[in-house]
Amino acid sequence: MQMLKSLPVAVYLLLLTFSASVGAAPRIDNVSIEEGELQILGVFFGVKSPAAPILWETFEDGTDGAYLPTSANWVAYNRSTGGEYDNAEAYSGVLSAHNAISSSSDEFRTSYTTFPATDKVYYTYYSKYSGSGGDVIKHGRVGSTSDYYSGAGVAMLSDGYVSWYTDGGSFYAPSVGDEDSGKSRYLSLDSSAWTRHSIFRDAGNSIEFSSGTTVRSYSNVSNITKQSGSVLLGLMVANATSTHNIWVDDVYIDNTKARVELCEGATWSTRIACDIQIPTSWSDSTIKATVNTGTFQTDDIAYLYVVDSDGTVNSSGYQVIIGETQVASSLSSGISSSTYDYGSFSWQQPSYAVERSSGYVYLTLARLDGSDGDVSVQWSSNGETAFHDIDYYGADNVTVSFADGETSKQIAIQLIQNAATDDRTFSVSLSNAAGGAALGSISSTSVTILGTSTISPPPTLRIQ
Q1: Environment class of residue 248 by beta-carbon count within 10 Å: exposed (0-12), middle (13-18) or buried (19+)?
Q2: Which of 13, 79, 257, 456 stands the most exposed, by the fewest C-beta atoms within 10 Å?
Q3: In a 3-state reduction of DSSP, which class is residue 369?
């Protein structure tokens, strides 16, 4: 296993913005640093055991020009040398894996790693290519413990298309009807810039390929049930007719899709580039992970996402800012003590009284003692002597979001017209303040719906 690249950067907690969870999508409520690791608190993270990935490889422990088999993780494939460490290009840090192809003898000079056979494997990495000609770039492959390039169970991402070998060892090129969204098996790969590629394979069930944010997914894949047990680096070009250079960096291999991502983009659907974080412990409500800032620089804004084992992810990211922290005489990752005044949430009044005929009661939610950043809080109603759906329309865990600088919101709760003559009361409580804000002094307020008057109207005078 590789250690995280040593970079003079840290992650500073800035703020949280999220919308209400749909189903069991992960939700991040708070992020902090504990003993040099990210600590992410929330709900619906699911299970990941073991927490650590099968392999996290940054290639930083090598020497420029040396061959990868000098690392215990990698074995040469097809050629005695395999890929090599190179400092001419690196996605992050100073080294990457590299192959220079100038003749047919160099085409498959790459390396592979093996691991215990598993039904599920998630393989993701960054790749870059330079060269010309109509040759075929062979990107990453997930294979069995004995078949690395071709043979039963091998799934492969090549230059612009996806394919796999069936259990019988036959090459299979999926058609449009095979893809979950009805798309073709072709991907538009921008290999001239560092691009993240991924392969996920669940034996006998599904295969998923991605390049950048473009995905090709195949469910109900019954013709490839052999377990996975190897990854072959995509440092290959077939039928080379000119000079080519391929680099691979930041390789992450695991037996689940569950992971933590640090991305550019405030929502998962609009993300651009992401750097995977390295988990060290994982429960349904708490994740710890070693920070991997990838190519993010000091003062960059980034967003954290938690992906569960089914691939479900929080739709809106938890915003952090990349910073630099001096600790003693060395630089280390950490979250700075906050210099932001996020404020606290409080009802403007401890109690309200309203005529039932008013139709609504309007509660003022104040943000006091600071207004920095985007923050949020939730409110819930609770009947005391008043009844939900009889006297008023209540709700549970309604999220109210405040933008940077906002200090006040009005909450309207509808009253129900009925013939009740007595006063009836319900309470409205605040909870789950997020983004750095806290609950204030009046976190619960009571609302009294005044009863209809019981005084009889004066008699009507009848003139005979």
Answers
A1: buried
A2: 456
A3: coil
pLDDT at 316 > cutoff 80: yes
Measured in Å, how far apart are the chain's first and last C-alpha atoms? 104
Residue 414 phi/psi, 5-degree rounding, is: -80, 135
Q: How many angstroms from the chain centroid is the CA of residue 27? A: 10
Mean pLDDT along residues 200-219: 92
More confident of the two residues 2 and 157: 157
Average of per-residue pLDDT across 25-47: 85
Hey, what are 363's tokens?
A: 């509660």
pLDDT at 147: 93
C-alpha dihedral sign at 100, 101, 103, 109: positive
Residue 104 phi/psi, 5° resolution? -60, -25
The pair of structure tokens assigned to 451 is 């009863």
Of the pLDDT bands very low, low, confident and very high (cuts 50, 70, 90), residue 189 is low
pLDDT of residue 21: 36
List all residues 6 or more positions away from 190 whose beta carbon is below 8 Å from its beta carbon.
Answer: 211, 212
Tell me what pLDDT residue 85 has: 95
Residue spans of beta strands (DSSP E) within 48-172: 55-57, 75-77, 84-86, 96-101, 110-118, 120-131, 136-143, 155-158, 162-165, 171-172
Contact by Cβ (8 Å): 235, 248:
yes
Task: Give the pLDDT confidence of 261-295 residue by residue, as tens digits.
Answer: 999 998 999 998 899 999 999 999 999 999 998 99
Asked if residue 259 has pLDDT above 50, the reply is yes
Give the C-alpha distances (Å, rounded to integers) separating 240 from 4, 84, 145, 157: 35, 19, 28, 18
- What the block records as the tokens of 66 is 């040396």
CA-nearest of 375, 142, 172, 364 to 253 is 142
In the sheet where 351-355 sits, what is the strand order? 351-355, 444-450, 424-434, 375-383, 398-402
Max intra-chain CA distance, the chain: 121
**251, two tokens:** 């390789």
Are 164 and 155 a contacting pair, CB within 8 Å?
yes
Phi, psi of 444 (to 5 degrees): -140, 135
| β-bridge mates for residue 380, sequence order | 429
157 pLDDT higher than 60: yes
DSSP 407-430: -EEEEEEEB------S-EEEEEEE
For residues 457, 459, 461 and 464, what is the CA-based torsion angle, rounded to 10 degrees?
140
* Parallel/antiparallel/unpaired status of strands 444-450 and 351-355: parallel
Tell how strand 344-347 and strand 438-439 pair up.
parallel
- The DSSP 8-state label assigned to residue 269 in this structure reads G
Distance CA 157, CA 242 (A): 22
Least confident interval from 36-40, 101-105, 124-128 = 101-105
Return the pLDDT at 372.
82
